[in-house]
Amino acid sequence: MHPDLVGRLADGESLVAVEAKGHGDLLRGIAQAELYRRGFHLVLLACAGRPPQELLIMARQRAVGVLAILPDRVELLDLPPAHMPQLHHAKHIRRQLTLNTALVSPFSFNLPTHYLAMAPVLQTWAQERGTGWAPLHELDAVARSHYTVLPRGITSLRSALRGAAKLGMVALQADRAQLTFTGRTVAALLPAAPELARLHAALDTGHRGVTLAMIHPQVGAVLRLLLNADPIAQLLIDTLQTSDTPLSMRSLVLLSAERDRALTPVAFFKPEAVAALVGDDGQILWHKVQPQHFRSTTFFQYKSVLKHAGILVPHALGGSSAKSYHPDADLWELTAVARG
Fold first, then answer.
1. CA angle, corner 113, sides to 304 and 199, nearest 5?
2. Fold agreement (5-85, 113-206)
3. For the chain, what are the domain ranges?
4. What is the DSSP string of 78-134?
5. Strand 65-69 versus strand 42-48 pairing type
6. 5-85, CATH topology level
7. What pTM value is reported for the model?
8. I need a labelling partner for 240 at 20 to 30 A (CA). Which of 31, 70, 92, 122 fits?
């Protein structure tokens, strides 16, 4: 069962599924939408124009809402009351949504110092200006005066803030940002922005294999705590804890699929490739998998951030592009700290 559109209401918990059928096959659409009630609080059928009255009655009898899609507007013709879905289905769908949200905003930089520096930068802003929300066009100059290694351009600031938001430290709203409760707490534990800039420069020019956790254990520990709430990081860590030896990317995906068949393709493969690489039974079709199908943000940025946090042994990264990627040569291994 694959709805055409899946989402959550503003409460962050209620799940909604929409089945779209255009002008025809509306009976089948109602039947499909009714099946979605197993895992969703609300289900709706979307059709082009207003359906016949008898179909509206049939949909209402099956607790399926109806959306009429018109050339200039959308009309909600009927909305059934929300109901409680089967818990295990709903929990699984919520986890998929959480993972997808995490993947929509991937890490842009491979060194996490850019993200961590946003906490002391925004703390300085709040102390100097007496307000938490910082407009990005004003924050840019403040950030660069304290954290001098940030790459040029407002795009770099946005990327650093998005990474900080992924770590739970920053709230973003249009063209402004402020620290979250987690961010304000972490800012008290992190060095000031100039010291983080020094650490970044040391990593950028240092020997390969040297990590942030090695040169500043406290910052590495803070980063580990922040990553504990990231669903992709947790999927990777949980899977690696099942092996006492280094795993190639291919072996990592195989073990991950044994743990969670639905989330694994989303975490490791490009979105446009998933449909072709996964069979109807949810099994990965390995004879179709090519190196270019893997997500570079997973084998490059995520791997780098986990390495600098002291979670992964600093094996070589997979590379910045899937075009030259070799999944069997890409090794993943937990450190003793992460293994516990």
1. 105
2. no
3. 5-85, 113-206, 230-339
4. E-PPP----HHHHHHHHHHHHHHHHHHS----SSTHHHHTHHHHHHHHHHHHS-S-E
5. parallel
6. Rossmann fold (3.40.50)
7. 0.77
8. 92
Strands 15-22 and 42-48: parallel
66 pairs with which residues across the strands? 45, 78
Closest to 40 in 3D by CA, of 84, 100, 75, 106: 84
Instruction: Compute the distance between CA of residue 6 and CA of residue 237 in angstroms, rounded to an integer.
Output: 27
Token look-up 């799940």 returns: 15
CATH of 113-206, one of 1.10.150, 1.10.3470, 1.10.10, 3.40.1130: 1.10.10
Residues recorded for the chain: 340
What is the spatial order of strands in the sheet that 5-8 belongs to?
5-8, 15-22, 42-48, 65-69, 74-78
Rg (alpha carbons) of the chain, rounded to whole number: 23
**DSSP helix/strand/coil, 253:** helix
pLDDT in tens, 193-204: 999 999 999 999
